[in-house]
Design brief:
Blueprint: H1 38-43, E1 51-54, E2 58-62, E3 72-76, H2 88-108, E4 113-117, E5 133-138, H3 157-164, H4 171-178
Antiparallel strand pairs: 1-2, 2-3, 3-5, 4-5
Length: 181
């Protein structure tokens, strides 16, 4: 594959990143820090926290609730309210950090597993309007129950699937899901 020589590159524009300069990810997707957001204040270093991990885009710190040993919150440093509203780059960075911290807890800290929890939006009981994931490190027989008791929903699953599906089904498969022949 032919490569451009330095004199063949377009002139640098100080307003835009050049061809060889990194483009800051997530900056176009999410907003600036908000003074009224405790997680923004933590990310900016204006409020204290027990940091577990930090990189250019994310921060992981212990939840002050003290409800479970090692209960960790992972946030994007850029303010975004929830998963539905965040940019793809922010979501990718966040999930990389969630995975990395989870692996560290299991492979290096003596835990056997983790629960990953997220509430996105007020109706989902999101308590702080800044996107965050909870990592709850788990040990066998630790006595924690991190699963909500949801009860029973009687709605037909095929009907729910038709409402929620993002997959375009061929007509024959659609008939099978509807219970037809």
């Amino acid at each position: 594959m032919p490569r451009l020589k330095e004199n063949e590159l377009p002139p640098l524009d100080s307003e835009k990143p050049g061809l060889l300069e990194p483009i800051p990810l997530g900056a176009e997707d999410d907003g600036p820090p908000r003074e009224d957001c405790i997680f923004c204040r933590i990310a900016e270093g204006e409020a204290s926290s027990y940091k577990i991990y930090e990189d250019e885009y994310t921060l992981a710190f212990l939840d002050l609730a003290g409800d479970a040993e090692g209960h960790t919150l992972v946030i994007p440093k850029q303010h975004t309210e929830n998963l539905v509203e965040c940019g793809e780059d922010t979501a990718a960075h966040l999930m990389e950090t969630v995975k990395s911290v989870s692996e560290h807890y299991v492979n290096s800290c003596g835990y056997q597993g983790v629960n990953i929890l997220n509430a996105s939006g007020e109706s989902a009981q999101q308590s702080v309007p800044h996107l965050h994931f909870h990592i709850i490190p788990r040990r066998r027989d630790d006595g924690l129950n991190a699963w909500p008791s949801l009860g029973k929903n009687d709605r037909d699953l095929a009907e729910v699937c038709r409402q929620l599906s993002m997959i375009s089904l061929p007509k024959e498969e659609e008939k099978v899901q509807k219970g037809g022949k």
